[in-house]
Amino acid sequence: MSKPREHWGSKFGFILAAAGSAVGLGNIWKYPHMAGQNGGGAFTMVYLICILIVGLPILLAEISIGRHTQLNPVGAFKSLSKNSNWKLVGFLGVASAFTILSFYSVVGGWTLKYTFLALMGAFAEFSAGQGAGEAFNQFIMNPIEPVFWHLVFMGLCILIIAQGVKSGIERWSKILMPILLVILLVLVFRGITLDGADEGLRFLFSPKWSDLNASSIVLALGHAFFTISLGMGTMITYGSYMDKKSDLLQSALWVIGLDTAIALLAGIAIFTAVFALGQNPAEGPGLIFVVLPSLFPSMAGGAIFGIMFFFLLFVAALTSAISILEVVTAYFIDEKGWSRAKATYIFGGVIGAIGVIASLSNSGYNILSPITDMTFMDLMDKVSSKYMLPLGGMLTAVFVLVRWGISRFVDEMHVGAAWFKFSKPVVTTIFIISGIVVAYIFVRELLAVLG
Question: What does the pLDDT average to over 126-148?
């Protein structure tokens, strides 16, 4: 007799866990930077439209497939399309999760390291951005230290996932997500009270239509898709732990709302401080590990705010990472009959080992050096984010359209959400648009490489 499937203890638990999955490092630095350099408020408006047109439909598709089948991504596609190759879409999701976590955990280790640096007061030594930049480069090029922090980060992920859905993912999401929100709100309040903060707000939110071009729109489309953890099986897996009383539309809107709100709040917190203290807002990723560590010592109470900021980054990374590990774990539990402990420890360990290779590729031990200048870590990032995820999302939209069927999808959506009547022609049109948009992103990236 098979063990009964675990379920979320409450709708609130699912929302926080799914929002935690969606809220990652990209929300904290990537979105604010993209918005600031691509039209500010104009980019934000395009992004919000894209997230409703592209992100919401595919998010609903994934969680409805998960809830309907009560299975992992591979099992879900097999169940809905027996004796077909559609199960390969599920395998693609599991493979994407595996690939992403193997390098994401390395960056998660960096956030943990910088949290401890902040606690030790080490940022006081970074009187100029150059000093912080040298310190960061020395850290990631060290063959030992980044590996240590990566393994600590993976160990935390493994311990949470091994505890299960309610006792592990849900319980920790209920602890970590409120902490993330409170810290972010404190940082926002501190940022807007700094002299010159209004320049940062204008940089982020004032519509600059002249800076918005075709490339900016594609950037908004891509980020709208990637920011909600689509295409990697996470939302199918999390959806499989939902019961039939859950309102899928309401839950999805909450997840998207929290994800977007946190991205906007992070932009306010970062750019008000950057402008108030006269730093360069065009640093991109360098804002996190180079500019901000040198900026906090110049701010009243900066030591405390530095600790809070990097702990915020660590929490965002951890809530995303546990959702990714759960995809791989759920596959081996459902399809291979493994215990949760066995699946978690074995494949958490395997992912951790590949992460060691990714980390070492930054320090001169790059296994790809005979054939390319790209590091192993950069390759894993590029292959997963630019090809695997959009391909998985596009095929999920096509699956709903041509295999599962809009009628069955709409029927599943009405379970628990009888208050909202889904029009089948409208839903069909939206899925066609979503599929075309994601296909465009995928083909554009592919042609960029081939060209």
Answer: 84
